């Protein structure tokens, strides 16, 4: 099954068809994203950190993220792209991490060129420090070498625009990472319009497909992205946790205002719907076959 998922993602990249991935911080969110029709799941470090109520700053250990990726990969039938931040250390750490993520059912990893510990890219006045290009090339080469199947995808995330180093530096690093063996290049921007990203796309050689995360510039549509012919993946990086926080805050506040659940209960998914999402039908089939 994992090989099939990997091949599906690879096919999208090789054919330059736009692959859409929705963030998830647990298997239920991933299941809902699959139900909605997304091509894949983004195993978001930001969302998982938020679900633990800690900053996205290399605080959660790899084991927690890896366990969640395994649970998500087991739950859905679509490819999972894991956000492994800076790779949990240097090239040695990356060499050990990649086979574990591959064995967990992940189809691709995204690794960024920041120093460890990282700071989230969209934090106002965040600490955005980048590795030397050569050091990150070594980490990418270690990742490519450590994978057991060539269908497993390694994506390099370029943070030069986030760090304010300019377009020329972003393009230089992207080319260097492609040279090191990255299968795709994620170019990140925190500008409120897509102009910076579109300029990068126009200047990009096209030697490897690009990956976009349009969190800061939501007006850029999938149709416009596909028209560039250079983008392979679009990731919606934090919408599951934002939707969950907004909905819970609204419902919890209403219950306290009303002094009970009498007004909100009818607006919520039924308990039976949740039981269905939990896979109750499959459990009943197992009971019929094997409980004696």
TrEMBL record:
Its EC number is 3.11.1.3. Coiled coil: none annotated. The keyword Metal-binding applies. Keywords: Hydrolase, Metal-binding, Pyruvate. Belongs to the isocitrate lyase/PEP mutase superfamily. PEP mutase family. NCBIfam families: Pphn_pyruv_hyd. This is Phosphonopyruvate hydrolase. It comes from Rouxiella aceris.
